[in-house]
Structures
1.
Amino acid sequence: MNFLEERILKDGIVKPNNVLKVDSFLNHQMDISLMEEIGREFHRRFGDKNITKVLTIEASGIGIACFVAREFGVPMVFAKKSHSINIDSEVYTAEVESFTHKNKNNIIVSRKFLNQDDHILIIDDFLANGCALQGLIAISKAAGASVEGIGIVIEKGFQIGGQVIRNLGIQLESLAIIDAMDSDTGSITFREQ
Ligand code: 5GP
């Protein structure tokens, strides 16, 4: 069991509707030592790639992506959720359905911060159905940049996103993959990696 799986078992709370709460250490209160370890682990897994930018989506990806970007010594860019439907020529946009909030947002990234010379590492806290990642991939493509890999802290392997993204042929590294979880018993089963 790796450092993250141990922490999920200790402090994660399984909620109904396939939601895992990890807000005591990952996406509300953040354990900074754990963030540093996550940053180092993604660098170990993607360090052979010539990464020029780390890309994530607000809000909960930002903190994690900062620690990853520091390991690579590159900028971190985050896609903003925009409530405006105006397509501004200054931005790349994609539509993303939120797993947790069940609403749709346009996400935007300024054209100033991504271009065809960029080699992107996408980072996010969770992978569920893959909508957030598909939006970030679409924005990278619109910029003409290459997606070198995707790093996810917690993949819920019983939802479709992991398979969808792996079928695209992009290197996807998830630090913990949950194959099953039960809100009645609180049990969590990890995939052997
Ligand atoms: P997807 O787009 O893959 O369906 O969902 C990924 C996004 O939804 C992540 O950015 C994350 O913020 C949120 N998310 C998905 N599942 C969970 C979950 O079980 N717990 C929490 N806290 N966030 C989740």
Note: The two ends are 9 Å apart (CA to CA).
2.
Amino acid sequence: MAAVSALTAAAVAVVGLAAPAHAADPVLRDLAAAKGVYYGTAVTSSKLSGTYGALAGAQFDSITPANEMKWGTVEPNRGSFDWAGADRVVNFAEANGQRVRGHTLVWHSQMPNWLANGSFSNTELRTIMTDHVTTEVTRYRGRIDHWDVVNEPLNEDGTMRGSKFYNQLGESYIADAFRAARAADPAAKLYINDYNTDGTGPKSNGMYSLVQRLKAQGVPIDGVGFQGHLILGQVPSTLQANLQRFADLGVEVAVTELDIRMTLPATDAKLTQQKAEYKAVTNACLAVARCEGVTVWGFTDSDSWIPDVFPGEGAATPYDAGFQPKPAYYGIAEALGWTGDGGPGDPGDPGDPGDPGDPTPTTGCAVAYAVQSQWNTGFTAGVTVRNTGTSPVNGWTLRWTWPSGQSVTQAWNATVSQSGAQATAVNAAHNAAIAPGGSVTFGFNGAWSGGNTAPGAFTLNGAACTAAVS
Ligand code: XIL
């Protein structure tokens, strides 16, 4: 383990060089480990260098190849294998002290053409499938922590999806795939994985019954993966309860492909909401004892499948396309117990005023000046000063310059003095404080001759205000 820590520290140092503005950012994998879970990311093997590689290695303690272990990638032609991408991911993980989620062995999608379009007898297809499972799991025996043995077996209504495997072999294809995987690597945890099963509902109920049936048959299934491809504002409120009911069946659970997509463009409000939602999903896993960890489906918006598949949507991951941490990243960190402040990129959560990541307070003021009455050489004016910032004002000095030789003769609710053409109003004891969004009013009598043009500019405690003269 000492070697692992040293490697982690080295990787963090590299990140520090690449992104000095965030040198103090928390390390998700360390926070997760302290909570007894892992935090993972899907990766693209060809990108595992530079800043991408440094962040993937430093921040996460589990990685999932996004495509490199899929059947179509590893066996593009029958009997001819290409393990280059998969090997790169496994080697990277070992160099960085990370676990690997193997993804995925049996799936209706991203199959090689020879398999998708070939015709095989049922017996032949069953053997092709179990041989594939055996070959791939054996190759990485002892090096893969979790395998997604069967991916996306269900329809939206919870019935079995009519994949090539199901149509020809019936539901027993699932049991056979799991048995072949267990025989090839008894130490790997074997998962079934699907999307839109995150909250309770028909599809989740279908998965629940399927897992019950598999357990009743003695099928070696260890876990259920909930992909977590979520939509901003639609994170299921039943997520935690749903994870818990599966855990109660006697399996592990994990969020395996988390992303939270939004309609583009991303705005500060959407990113702040996304922070709260990443935090909520992470909290849901932490609240379920058998939830092993969370994996994000790409850690940077430049490596997310969302814009390709859902036109007009994106910004779904915790880092922006330039590798800067987004509010979502700080949301994950806060769920994992971090109490630091990520600065302006780390907004507070609505309803959570004590959030350590509240945005840097702003200051600002607006002044309304009005002549209320005027006679041959004198006038009475009222001044309202509004605090348009987000931090309170405690004690104030308002200054302005008279444009046409006026002077203040007597004031109320403030002490006003004058030097040359410059007037200075200082708060009275009772109106020293101006809360954010609040205002104070004072007034005075003045003298004029020749002209009584209103002052055009005011400063509050030295900073210019917006003047709204009325
Ligand atoms: C996606 C990859 O991220 C894309 O690069 C690829 O083009 C399509 O597949 N559910 C899964 C993942 O189980 O394997 C999918 O990954 C996303 C949906």
Note: The mean pLDDT is 92.
